[in-house]
Amino acid sequence: MQKKALAWIFGLALILGPSFVKADGTLLGTISGKVVDERGAALPGATVELTSEDKGFRRSMTTDSAGNFQFALLQPGPYSVKITIAGFETFLSKDNIVSPDKTTTVAATLKIARIAETVVVSGETPLVDKTNTSDTTIISSQLTDKVPIGRSYQSVIVFAPGLTDPIPNSPSGGNPNSHGALRGNNLYLFDGVDTTDVTTGTFGQNFNFEAMQEIAVSTTGISAEYGRAQGAVVNVVTKSGTNRFSGSVKIYWTNDSWNAQNKGSNAINGAPFAREKTDSTVPDYNYTLGGPFWQDHLWFFGTYETVQAVLPAVQTQVSSVHPNETGQSAVPVEDTRLWVGKLTFQVTPSHLLTGQFNSDPITGFINDYWGASAELQALTSQSQNACGGVGCLKQGSWSGVFGSKVTGEARYAEQSGNINVSPYLGNGSPFFSFSDGLYYNGATFNGIVDRPRKQANLAFSIFQDIGGSTHQIKLGVDYQDLKSIANFDYPTDTLYYVSDFNPANRADPVFQVGDIRQNFIPGPSVSTGKIWGGYALDKFSIGQHWSFNVGLRVENQTSKSDLGQSVINTTNFSPRITAIYDIAGNGKSLLSAAYGRYYQFLVQAIADSIFAGVPQESNYDQFLWDGTQFVFDKSVRAGGNNAPVNGDLSPSYLDEFNVAYQQQVGNAMAFGIRGIYRKWTDIVDDAKFLTPDGSLFQTPANFAEAQRYYKAIELSFDKRFSQNWQVLANYTLSRATGNQFNNSQYTSQLFDFPGSNCTLRDAHGNTFTQPCPDAEIHNQYGLAPYDRTHILNVLAAYTMPLGPVVLTAAPVFNYQSGLPYQRQRTSLTPIGSPYTYFYDPRGTSRTPSTYELDFSLEAVFRPNGAQVPLIAGPIELGVRGEIFNVTNQQKVFRSDLISTTPNFGLADPFQYYGQPVSRDALQVPRTYRVSALVRF
C-alpha cells in the first residue's frame, strides 16, 4: 500500500508498477520557432525565455546553429516568448496559445538595436499545424459555454465532420458512427486515459461538463500514437487551476410543461403522439473552484454537479386476464452526481506531475427489461457507475524535459464502473403467464456487472539533426489489463412458466399440470484480457516546404474466457505515413496526403457471450408440476466453451487514404477541404452451425465476403474568438456502403447455418424455402443504415459589450439527410431465431432530411469594483435562456415500421411502410432551458 501511495504522488513509480495501460498521444503542446535577422540569416546563441501567462513558470534555452528553438511538453494555455541577443532589439510575443498535441510556431525577426527597445507582437494560435495534419476538430469550452448544446461530451462530439447520430440534442445512444465505422469502434479518452467500455466498445463513462477545457475529435489521418480504433478518437481535456483563484456557480432549470407538445399520430391505429406533460421544474446545480496552492508551482481544480430529474413514468401492461390487478406506473427519479478533482504540480520548469479523480454515479433508473411486465414487482431498478470511495477513474501522469534533446511522458490509471440491478419492488421469483404472455412478481435481473481496468503508458521523444533535417523520433509503449465481470441472476434463482398467475394469490400461487419451475445455478463470470501496444514514429522536415510523419504501431491482444480458455491471441502491424507540403513556407498553407491502417478492438463480449463457461441466467435444472409437486425433468447447461475456438481470429482492419488542403487566415481563422477513402478487410462476424443432434454452436471468424466502404469530401471552417465572434462549421458529403453494419461488431445474420434451409415468406406472405446462406446475403449490399449523404453543422456565438453588461447571442444549426431503409420482414431460421429478409436492396428508401435550429441569449453583468481578495478578475452575474428546435421541426428521422412484419391481410401488405408508430421516431419538440450564474 505504501509503494502504491508513493506511486500516485510521484508518478514515475506508477510507470514501473505491475500494470501498464493505455493513454496514447500527448495532452501537452509545443512552442517552436526560428530566430533570424532582417536579412533572413539565422541567429544562433539567442536567449529564448518562455513564460506561462496563467501559471507563472518559466523555461529558457538558446537557439541552435540554425537559429531554431523548441519548448516541448507544455501545459495548454497562453505563453509569452521573449528573445534577446546582444546588438539586437528585444523581441516579445504575447498570448501564444498552446493546444494539446499541437505545435505553435513563433517566427522572430530581430532588428539591429539603435536604442534600447522591445518589439511586442501578437501571439500565435495553431489552427493549422504541419506537424499534425490529422482531421481533428477541437471544440473549446470558450465556445461550448456560449452555444445551446447538451451538457455532455457525447452531445458535443456529433458536431465533428463525418459523424452520424440521431438529431443533436435529441435522445440518442451517445455513440456516433464515424466515417463509416461502427458505433463500437470509437476510442473515448479522458485526459489521454482510455474509458471505452471493454465489453461493448461504446463509451464507458460520463463526465462533468464544467470540467471540460476542450474536446478533440480526431477522425482521419491519425498517427501511430493511437491504436485500437477505426472510428473517432475522442479526447476530453480537463481544466486545470492557475495562479488566479476562480470559480463559478451555475444553475440550469428545465420543465416539461414549458415545452411544445408532440405532433403526429400512430400510422396504424391513429393514436396521437401527444404526451402527458410533467409540470416539475428540475434544477441542475454546478460548482467549480480552482487556484494555486503554491504560486507558480502547485494548482488545484474541482467541480461538482448534482441533478435530480423526474423521468417519464414506466407503464406496466394491463393483463387481459387480470385487468383489475395489473397495469401500474412507476416514476423514476434519476439522481446524477458528477465530480472531478485535479492537482497539477510543476515540480521544476521541466517536470510536471498531475493527479486526477472523477466519478459519475447515477441512480434511480427503473426499467421494464422483460418488455412485458404486468406489475411493479416485475420491474428492475438500476444504478450505474456508483463506484463509491475515491471515484470511478483515478489517474496520475508525469512529463519531463531533459536538456534540449530528450522528453518523456508517462501515465497510469485505474478505472471501475459497475451497473447494479435489483428488483424494483419486493424480491420474489418471476412468473411468466401463458394466459396473457406477461411477467409477474419478480425482476429480470438481480446482481452486478463491472468492467475494471488498469492502464499505463510510457513514451520518450528524441530531437536530433540528421542529414540537415530536424527529426522528432518518438518511441512509446502502452498496456491494458482488462476484466469483464458479470454476476447476476433471477431473484431467488428461480423462474416459473405457468398457465396463469393471479396477483391476488401471490403468497400461495395455484399451479396446473405442466407448469414449469427452473432452478438456476448462479455464479460469477469473469473474463480477462491484456493488450500490449508499441509504436515508433519520426516527424521530420526536408527543406523549408516538406514535412513527414512516418510511424508503425504494433499491438498484441489476448483474451481468456471465465474458465481460463484462450479465445483471442493476435498481433497486428499498423503503418502510418503523412506527407505535408508547406506551400508558402510559413506553416499557414498546407497540402497533405496520408495513408494509414487501423485495426479494431476485439471486445470482451466475444469471450463473455460465445465462450462463457458460466453464462448468466442460462444454466438450470427444470421441474414439472405433476398435480401435487414439482418433479425433475431435465438439466440445461449452456456453457459456451463447447464452441470451437478460432485460433486464426484477428481484428478487422481498414486502409485509409486522405488528401487535404488547410489554410490559416490571420491568427484566428482557418478553413480546409479533405477527401477520404476507407476500405475494411477481414471483417469479424460470427457463424452459427447446427450439429446432427440439433444443438447450436457459434464461433467468430474473419469473412472475406463481408464488405464495408466509405468515401467523403469535407469542408471545414474554424474562427476562434476574436473581434467579438467565433464559429465552428463543417459540411460533409459522404457515402457509406457494404453488407455488414451490425453495431454489436461481431455478430450478424450473415454466414449462418451453412447446409441448412431457411423458411421464408415473399412480399405477399407466400411460404418458400431457400439455402440459408443465399437468403441471408440477398439484397444485403447497399447503403449503410447510418449513411447520411449531406451533413451541415454550424456553431456560432457573437458577444456584444454594452457598458457593464455583455450580451452573447449563439445559434446552432444542424442539417442532415435522412437515414436509409428498405422493405423487409422478420422470418424464421431453422431453430426459430429471428431472421430478416430484405425484399429490396439495402438502403432503397430514406427518411426525410431534417434540420434543427437552436438559439441562446446570455446577459452577463460585471459590477464595477466587484473584487474580492486573491481574485484578479471581477465577479460576474449572468442569466441565460436557451431554445432547442426553435422552429419546432418534428419530422420522422427513424421509421418504426422499417423492420416490422407487414400486415399480409391488407391489399397492400406494405401500406404503412416507412411510417412511425411512436413519438420517439420523430424529432424532439421545441424545448426550453434557463440558467443563472455567478462567476469570478
Outline type: globular
Give the CATH topology of the domain at 2-122. Answer: Immunoglobulin-like
CATH superfamily of the domain at 2-122: Immunoglobulins
CATH architecture of the domain at 2-122: Sandwich
Summarize the biggest pleated sheet: 27 strands, antiparallel
What ranges have pLDDT less than 50 throughout 5 or more consecutive residues?
1-24, 866-872
Q: How many separate helices?
A: 6
Query: What's the N-to-C terminus distance?
Result: 40 Å
DSSP summary, beta strand count: 58
**Alpha carbon gyration radius:** 30 Å
**DSSP helix fraction:** under 10%
Strand content: over 45%
Structural class call reads: mainly beta
CATH class wording of the domain at 2-122: Mainly Beta
- What is the typical, i.e. mean, pLDDT? 87
Task: Give an overview in words.
The strands form eleven sheets. This protein has a 27-stranded antiparallel beta sheet that branches. By secondary structure, the protein is mainly beta. It has six helices and 58 strands. Among the domains are: 2-122, Immunoglobulin-like (Sandwich); 136-153 and 155-238, Beta Complex (Ferric Hydroxamate Uptake Protein, Chain A, domain 1).
